[in-house]
Structures are given as structure tokens and as C-alpha cells.
UniProtKB/TrEMBL annotation:
Family in the record: Belongs to the prokaryotic molybdopterin-containing oxidoreductase family. NasA/NapA/NarB subfamily.
InterPro entries: Asp_de-COase-like_dom_sf, BFD-like_2Fe2S-bd_dom_sf, CT_Nitrate-R-NapA-like, MoPterin_dinucl-bd_dom, Mopterin_OxRdtase, Mopterin_OxRdtase_4Fe-4S_dom, Mopterin_OxRdtase_prok_CS, Prok_molybdopt-oxidoreductase
Source taxon at top rank: Bacteria
Pfam hit, one: Molybdopterin
GO terms classed as biological process: cellular respiration; nitrate assimilation
Cofactor (UniProt): [4Fe-4S] cluster; Mo-bis(molybdopterin guanine dinucleotide)
Any one of the GO CC terms: membrane
MF GO annotations: 4 iron, 4 sulfur cluster binding; metal ion binding; molybdopterin cofactor binding; oxidoreductase activity
This protein's name: Nitrate reductase
Keywords assigned: 4Fe-4S, Iron, Iron-sulfur, Metal-binding, Molybdenum, Nitrate assimilation, Oxidoreductase
Length: 947
């Protein structure tokens, strides 16, 4: 594979690289003109995606646009003279000297364990490696952990506890060979959409393939299943034990495989003896007949592939969840052959690479265990240091608890946003405030963590970096730069090496440097050397081979011609006796079950088009198209029982904190359950829920309870209560703004929203429009009218100053209305911005009318001044405005209403209707993320015709 692909345009070129989002590891081709990334498309030669990209990957060029970078990127090293002060730009020499001196001073005064490094699964393998070596080899502390602790550490410990090594034994090609696909703890259609498309292709080619989806919610993935097991939250182990009980009862296990290749089966067999269908149904909330069906499908299938992700991992029983699922594979011999095996789907783009280099507090390079003296000695010899510290490092939650207690005094955070993503935000923020020195090494200046940092170091990001990543199927891909880094940003590995060399001059004067690297490849070559003889041996790989032959799977030892696609085909496992081990544990309730005080089970998950804390995807209006803003989803029965209207603000309270959100009716949840997307932090959802406590987003609610083996927190589930918020004053505003100002104006708005009980400020629209303008939407509520200076500042930020708009204010009611209108080339008036605020919701019907008028972009149907008059809307279309139809297809900007109309107008059955409508509107023909819902709409249209 050539690094750069010449194309016809004199100033244009194309570069092969890898997507920076989820662990699928999709290949991308970046098109640049001059110094600007202008387009991105899927790489048809990459074996992970074969040219497909999801909505997030296919908009990467938009998030890298110069106007976005200028407003959201951290472009220069910056330092605060004191906490709370504005950060001032400084030079790199001063920044590096400041950090290295503070590290040395902290180590000398308080010992190396007074330092904590918290890094990220979005770093490249080379970045990860030098961070790990700096902490454990130079500073002498194992306090280096990663946000992969929040997503994949339970998968790590589950694999090691059962199979003996942290290595997914399967590959993407197994999708095509599976007879049964068992998807559990994963909304594959949204979290890993390209894999979902690949699985759909497999089923189309093999119609007999069955899917079982285990999920407390009726997700897009569950809607595609042959059998949806809608379990109670936290009852996964009870289900797996119940399935094993039935397979044993019906003689559907592989006794020969169990005898020859496993150990510990007898204890587990005795454990599940009492897990009858009746008992399993009671524990899981399922029907007995569905449990029986699932067990017989599994036991009767020639090849069973399980796919799982955060629903299993983010649990106080995460390792047990993983181990209990793997038990089913071992008991039935469903491992080590095509189409069979337990496959953990990685959450972040390089969580696997971080595990490979030992980037967790309990690991060392090449999957070595920190607790093994022989492994520590091996790494010390490889690195050329006297020893590696034996004291276990602090894992992510422990690290921030230690900082909150004053034990850790210096925090170095890289490429992650703990002030949004960590559970129990009260403790996290106390840690960030109490730590004597906080360093943030980051590409984006707008994250919730940035205001806590004493020193900010600008890092390069996607499209600017060189290195490698490893995806879910153990496949290593190259990441290549297409343009120079923005501003003064530097590669993460380079920043670490420069700091390390300065530290060496103070702590190891006169000795050969431990960091002799000139480029990313030299770092990777040292990492490669540490893998010799290990389970992930990659001594046969090189940058040159990856350049020539493309991405490769490990293991790939010296002398090999290709990597190994599947592991354990010979029935030998990397355990002391060569046998896989059954995981014997009793099923337990969730860490925080609902009760009378907190009667709702709250679960968290992803939005289709957003990524993590949204520092990148959240800059694009189109990626909010299928969701109008933050909300808590409740079933219709619970909405009626609480007497809540659609969109009404509710206060959601857990044992740790609270937040205010609009309630949204949805059919995905069972009664007494609620759902909030994981992405909402103070960057996009702001205000103070109780008017006193600092707002910290969804993770103000979540529990720090964690898995005892993996130390992964239970981010997926907690208990809450829900009540009306009691915030009668409401503001709704939208504005088109110049694209080179909109994000900056949003940052001006954010601190003002702390005055409100609820507020969100989000982009909207397809950016930019024909004038180069983009949209910004503001929604806020309060218990009383905010001060005039706050309202005036908000109006100014939205370009709604009184002198430039049509304005109406009623001093008695506090009602405010404002319109900004522009004239197009034909002299027609079009709505450019509006503001509606006041008591009792501030006239929501009027706001909805103006919203639809603004988003529709059509010329005004009446003079703008008439639109301000009381009753104006009734003169056009009587009654309250219906909500705008949500976006269905992000790629081609097709709404649910438009898609439904096109399907209704088509002929034939559901597949024929879908094909006809796609030929006209193209929806679902690019990334395919909307296909599951499109198929349901097409089926409904066909059924209505038959009726």
C-alpha cells in the first residue's frame, strides 16, 4: 500500500490512514489540497471495512476544517499563573522545562508515587509505549493508567482468567462462518456500525444464520434479531448460567472438548444445577420459553460467535460477565475454528495497542504482568534500567481518589477528558482542584478538563500523526499524516520524549538516554523487540511490511508470512497446564439495584452519530440530526404515571448527584427503566441542576463501584429517582452564524449557562450553508427570570442585539421575542435567528413554528414584523406546531418523514419499496447506519398497504 496516492489535481494528494474513532479500525483515504484536508472516504483495500465508513468517520474532514481547528483546537502551549486565571501562551521550551522540573521536584519531595499519569485509548501505540516507559522505567511509578480502564479492562481480565491471555481468539471473517451470532452488551448497529453492515452481509449470504441479541433495551440491533432477550439490567450472569443449565440438561455440551482442553468444569456444573428456566426467568425478567429457545439454538449450532462490548464490561461484575459468557463457548467447544469464539469488540481505536505495550497500572510491555518478578526483570533488562517498581499502580478511579485525598500531587492527563468521562464527578473534580499541578496534553481546548489544567500542551491529532493502532481483531494498521499539525501542536510521543530527556539530565546525569528515538518508527521497533516469544509476538512485522502488504494481525513472529487469524485451533491455551479454565461465580444483583428511594434503573449508552465526549464530533451540526438534544428516555407507561408531557424538564437524582433533562417518550425501555446517552457533559449540556452543586453531566450520576478484578467502573447502570424540575422560565433560541465564529460564540455562551437550572447549546444544520454559515441552538430553563446582563450577553453571542433585530418585550410577563431576518439575492426575507423566552415555557408553540421556519430555509410566508404579533401563527396554520421530523439518514440529510413518504409511495413488498425509495433519495446507500430503521419503516409501509 502506497502511503501517498497521487491524483490528477496539481495541488491534491491522497493519503491512506486509519479512522480515530471506534475499535473496528477502518481504513480511510484522506484527500488534501495544499495544507487542507478536504475529503475522506473509506479505503476499499483495508480488510476491516473494505471502503465503508460510518457517519462519524465520513465527516472527519469536516471536523478537521481550518475554521473548526481555529475555534476548537489547542494551538499553543499555555500556562495559568494561578487556578481560575486565564491561561496565557508560552513557548515550548518553557512548557517542557516547567513540566520536567515539576515532575522532578515532586518525585524528590514526595516520592514517585505522588505522580499520576492518566492517558488514553485514542493514543497511538508509539505514544502509549513512551508514556509507559517514562512512568515505570524513568520516574519509578506504576501510576500510569488509561481511559481504556473504563471500557476494556473487564474484557482483558475475562480473557486472562479463562483463556490465559488477553487475546480475542476470533476475527471479522468469522461473521460469514457463524451459524449463530450471540450479541450481548452491545448496540452493534450504533456503536460499531461498519461491523453491523458486515454482519448483515453475512446473513444475506447465509439466510439460515440466526441472531440472538441480549439487551435491556429494544435497540436498533435488537430490532434486527431473530430473538431479543430483554433482560433486566445486571442479570447477565444469571442468564448465562441458565443457558448452561439447559445445555447440560439437553446434552448439548461438548464433553470431549471439556475433558481434553479445560479445567474447573465440575464446580461450575454444580453451580448451575439450580439455575432452572423458572429461576432464570425470575432473575432476568425473561420468558422461560425464550430462555429454552436460546439454549437450544446455541447448543444445536455448528458455529457460535458471541459479540460483546460495554454492556458486559462496564459493570462491577465485568470480569464475571465476560468469564460466564466464555464458559458457554468452552462447554460447547465453540472456540478455535471458523465462525466460533468469544469476540470482545473494542471501544476505542487503540485500546488494544495500549494493552500490548502495558499501558495499564497492572501491566508491563507485551502483556507481561506487573506482579510477576520474572516479568519485571525482563522489562528492566529490555529497557536498560535497574528495576521496575513492584508496588501496584493506581487504576483510573483509584488515581483520582488518591489525588482528591492529597496522595497524588501531580496529574499528567493526555488525550482524554476525565471531567466528563469518569464516574462520580464530584470526586474527580475535587481531585483536579486539589492536585498541586495538573497537566493536560490535548488536541482540543474546549474539553471540560481544560479549565482545571495549570499547563496545557497542544497535541497533534488525526490527519497529522504518524504511528500505528491495533483493532478488535488484533490487526495492526498504520496511521499516517496528511497535513502538518495545527498551530504549534506536536506528536504525543515527541512531547513525552522531550520531557523524559530533560528529566534524565536531572535524575540520570551522564548515562545513556532511555529515550533515543528520532521518529515514531524507532519507538515501534523497540516495542516490537519486547514482544519476542510472547503471545503477541510481532517480530516478523515492520513499518516497511505494513507499507507493502497493508494491515496485519498478530501474532506475526519472525519468519512468518502472515498473521494468525484465529487462536487456539489446536486446543492449547496459554495457561500453566495448557487448559482453558471455567469461571465459577454466583450470579449477583447489580452494584446499585433500584429501591423505594431510587426506583428507576438508569442505563447509559451511545448515540448513533456521536463519539464519547464529543470534543470532535460535537462541532458538527449534522451529527446531531437524529437527536434534537439531550434527554432522558422513559417508556409511555412511566411518562403517564409521572404525569409528564413530551419534552418536560425532569430532575434526575442518584446517590451522588443530579441533573435536569427533558423527558422523552420512547419504546426502547421497559417500565421502571430509563436511558441517558453517555456523551452529555458540560461541554454540551450545562447549568446547575440544583442551583448549588457544580454541573458535571451524566457522570454526576454514575457510580464508582468497580469490578474487583478489572477495576472497571459500573458506568452502565445506577439507580435514580425522577421528578418534575420545577423550572417555569424557559428560553429557546436558534441562529445562523458565520462558520468562523459559531464555535467561538458557543464558548462565550457556555459560562453564562451556569446561571440556569437547565441549559444546552448545540450546533445544528448541514454545515456550512451556501453563505458559509452554520447553526447554533440554545435551550435553557430557570426557576426565575435571569438577570438582564446575562440575557443581553446571550443575545449578543447569538447576534440578536436589539439594534439589529425585530424585537418585542413585555415587561409585565417577562416575555421576550426577537427575530433576525436576512434578504436573499431575490430580495425575499428569510429567518436567520430567533429568540423566545418567558414564564410558563415561553410560548413553545411559537418557538416550534420559528424553529421549523428557520431550519426549512424557505422564504417567509408573511412579513417578519407580523410574525411577532400575538396569534400570528394561528393565521398560517392553526394549532401548536408539530415537532420537526428527526433526521434519519445523516449522509444524505433525509428525515424520517421524507423517508416514510417515499416508502409509502413505492410499490411491492418491503425490500422492493426500500430499493425504489433508495434509487430516488439514496438513503442507506453510504454508511448504512440508518438501514435497520429504514427496513422497519419499509415493512410498516408494506403492511399498511396490505391492510
Amino acid at each position: 500500500m502506497a502511503r501517498v496516492i497521487p491524483i490528477a489535481s496539481q495541488d491534491a494528494r491522497e493519503t491512506r490512514s486509519t479512522c480515530p474513532y471506534c475499535g473496528v479500525g477502518c481504513g480511510v483515504i484522506i484527500r488534501t489540497e495544499g495544507s487542507t484536508i478536504v475529503d475522506v472516504r473509506g479505503d476499499p483495500e483495508h480488510p476491516a471495512n473494505f471502503g465503508r465508513l460510518c457517519t462519524k468517520g465520513s465527516t472527519l474532514h469536516l471536523t478537521a476544517a481550518p475554521h473548526v481547528a481555529a475555534q476548537s483546537r489547542l494551538l499553543h502551549p499555555m500556562r495559568r499563573a494561578r487556578r481560575g486565571a486565564a491561561a496565557a501562551a508560552i513557548g515550548w521550551d518553557e512548557a517542557l522545562a516547567t513540566l520536567s522540573d515539576r515532575l522532578v521536584d515532586t518525585v524528590r519531595a514526595h516520592g514517585p508515587d505522588a505522580v499520576g499519569l492518566y492517558i488514553s485509548g485514542q493514543l497511538l501505540t508509539e505514544d502509549y509505549y513512551v508514556f509507559n516507559k517514562l512512568a515505570k522505567g524513568l520516574l519509578g511509578t506504576n501510576n500510569v493508567d488509561t481511559n481504556s480502564r473504563l471500557c476494556m479492562s473487564s474484557a482483558v481480565s475475562g480473557y486472562k482468567a479463562t483463556l490465559g491471555a488477553d487475546a480475542p481468539p476470533t476475527c471479522y471473517d468469522d461473521f460469514a462462518d457463524a451459524d449463530l451470532v450471540f450479541i450481548t452488551g452491545s448496540n452493534l448497529a450504533w456503536a460499531h456500525p461498519i461491523l453491523c453492515r458486515r454482519l448483515e452481509d453475512a446473513k444475506a449470504a447465509r439466510p439460515s444464520q440466526k441472531w440472538i441479541v441480549v439487551d435491556p433495551r429494544k435497540t436498533e440491533t435488537a430490532a434486527m434479531a431473530d430473538l431479543h432477550l430483554q433482560i433486566l439490567p445486571g442479570s447477565d450472569i444469571a442468564l448465562y448460567h441458565g443457558l448452561l443449565h439447559l445445555m447440560l440438561w439437553d446434552g448439548l455440551t461438548d464433553a470431549a472438548f471439556v475433558r481434553a482442553h479445560t479445567s474447573g468444569f465440575e464446580a461450575l456444573r454444580d453451580r448451575v444445577r439450580e439455575c432452572t428456566p423458572r429461576e432464570t426467568a425470575r432473575a432476568t425478567g425473561l420468558r422461560e420459553e425464550d430462555i429454552v429457545t436460546a439454549a437450544r439454538w446455541w447448543g444445536g449450532s455448528a458455529a457460535v460467535l458471541s459479540l460483546y462490548c460495554m454492556g458486559l464490561n462496564q459493570s462491577a461484575q465485568g470480569t464475571a460477565n465476560n468469564g460466564s459468557l466464555i464458559n458457554l463457548h468452552l462447554a460447547t467447544g465453540q472456540i478455535g475454528r471458523p465462525g466460533a469464539g468469544p469476540f470482545s469488540l473494542t471501544g476505542q481505536p487503540n485500546a488494544m495497542g495500549g494493552r500490548e505495550v502495558g499501558g495499564l497500572a497492572n501491566l508491563l510491555s507485551a502483556h507481561r504482568d506487573l506482579g510477576d518478578p520474572a516479568h519485571r526483570a525482563e522489562v528492566a533488562a529490555l529497557w536498560g534500567v535497574d528495576d521496575v517498581p513492584a508496588t501496584p499502580g493506581k487504576t483510573a478511579i483509584e488515581m483520582f481518589e488518591a489525588a482528591a485525598d492529597g496522595e497524588i500531587r501531580l496529574l499528567w492527563i493526555a488525550c482524554t477528558n476525565p471531567a466528563q468521562s469518569m464516574p462520580d464527578q464530584a470526586t474527580v473534580r475535587r481531585a483536579l482542584e486539589r492536585a498541586e499541578f495538573v497537566v493536560l496534553q490535548e488536541a482540543f481546548a474546549t474539553t471540560a478538563t481544560a479549565p482545571f489544567a495549570d499547563l496545557l500542551l497542544p497535541a497533534s491529532t488525526w490527519g497529522e500523526k504518524s504511528g500505528s493502532v491495533t483493532n478488535s481483531e488484533r490487526r495492526i494498521s498504520r496511521v499516517r499524516p496528511a497535513v502538518r499539525a495545527a498551530g504549534e501542536a506536536r506528536d504525543d510521543w515527541r512531547i513525552v520524549v522531550d520531557v523524559a530527556r530533560r528529566i534524565e539530565r536531572q535524575l540520570r546525569p551522564g548515562r545513556v538516554s532511555l529515550f533515543p528515538y528520532d521518529d515514531a518508527e524507532s519507538v515501534w521497533n523497540e516495542h516490537r523487540a519486547t514482544t519476542r516469544g510472547r503471545d503477541l509476538d510481532i517480530t516478523g512485522l515492520s513499518y516497511a511490511l505494513l507499507e507493502r502488504d497493508g494491515p496485519q494481525q498478530w501474532p506475526f513472529p519472525a519468519g512468518a508470512t502472515r498473521g494468525l487469524a484465529r487462536l487456539y485451533a489446536d486446543g492449547r491455551f496459554p495457561t500453566p497446564d495448557g487448559r482453558a479454565r471455567f469461571f465459577d461465580i454466583a450470579a449477583r444483583p447489580p452494584a446499585e439495584p433500584r429501591d423505594a428511594r431510587f426506583p428507576f434503573s438508569l442505563t447509559t449508552g451511545r448515540l448513533r452519530d456521536q463519539w464519547h465526549g464529543m470534543s470532535r464530533t460535537g462541532t458538527l451540526g449534522r451529527l446531531y440530526g437524529d437527536v434534537h438534544g439531550p434527554a432522558i428516555d422513559l417508556c409511555a407507561q412511566d411518562m403517564a404515571r409521572l404525569n409528564l408531557a413530551e419534552g418536560e424538564l425532569v430532575r434526575v437524582t442518584s446517590r451522588r448527584g443530579e441533573l435536569v433533562l427533558p423527558a422523552r417518550r420512547g419504546d426502547a425501555q421497559a417500565s421502571a427503566q430509563a436511558f441517558i446517552a453517555m456523551h452529555w457533559g458540560e461541554e454540551s449540556l450545562t447549568g446547575r441542576g440544583d442551583g448549588v452543586a457544580p454541573f458535571a453531566g451524566i457522570n454526576a450520576l454514575t457510580t464508582p463501584a468497580s469490578c474487583p478484578q478489572a477495576r472497571q467502573p459500573e458506568l452502565k447502570h445506577c439507580a435514580v429517582r425522577i421528578a418534575r424540575a420545577g423550572l417555569p422560565w424557559r428560553l429557546r433560541a436558534m441562529a445562523w452564524l458565520p462558520q468562523d465564529e459559531a464555535l467561538t460564540r458557543r464558548e462565550r455562551i457556555r459560562p453564562l449557562l451556569a446561571q440556569f437550572g437547565y441549559a444546552s447549546c448545540l450546533p445544528f444544520g448541514r454545515e456550512p450553508d451556501e453563505r458559509g454559515w452554520v447553526g447554533l441552538r440554545l435551550d435553557a430553563a430557570a426557576s426565575e427570570v435571569p438577570t438582564a446582563d446575562v440575557l443581553d450577553a446571550l443575545r449578543a453571542a447569538l447576534a440578536l442585539r436589539a439594534e439589529t433585530v425585530l424585537d418585542y418585550r413585555d415587561p409585565r410577563s417577562g416575555l421576550q421575542r426577537a427575530l433576525r431576518v436576512r434578504r436573499d439575492a431575490a430580495g425575499q426575507e428569510r429567518l436567520a435567528a430567533f429568540w423566545v423566552s418567558g414564564a410558563d415555557g415561553g410560548d413553545p408553540a411559537l418557538a416550534a413554528w420559528w424553529r421549523d421556519t428557520l431550519q426549512g430555509g424557505e422564504p417567509l410566508a408573511m412579513p417578519a414584523r407580523r410574525m411577532l404579533a400575538p396569534g400570528a401563527r394561528e393565521g398560517v396554520a392553526p394549532g401548536p406546531a408539530a415537532p420537526a421530523s428527526p433526521q434519519l439518514c445523516t449522509c444524505f440529510d433525509v428525515s424520517v418523514a421524507t423517508a416514510t413518504a417515499a416508502l409509502e409511495a413505492a410499490d411491492g413488498g418491503s425490500s422492493q419499496r426500500l430499493a425504489q425509495a433508495q434509487a430516488r433519495l439514496h438513503f442507506g446507500t453510504n454508511c448504512g447506519s440508518c438501514l435497520p430503521r429504514l427496513r422497519r419503516l419499509a415493512q410498516a409501509a408494506a403492511e399498511r398497504t396490505l391492510a
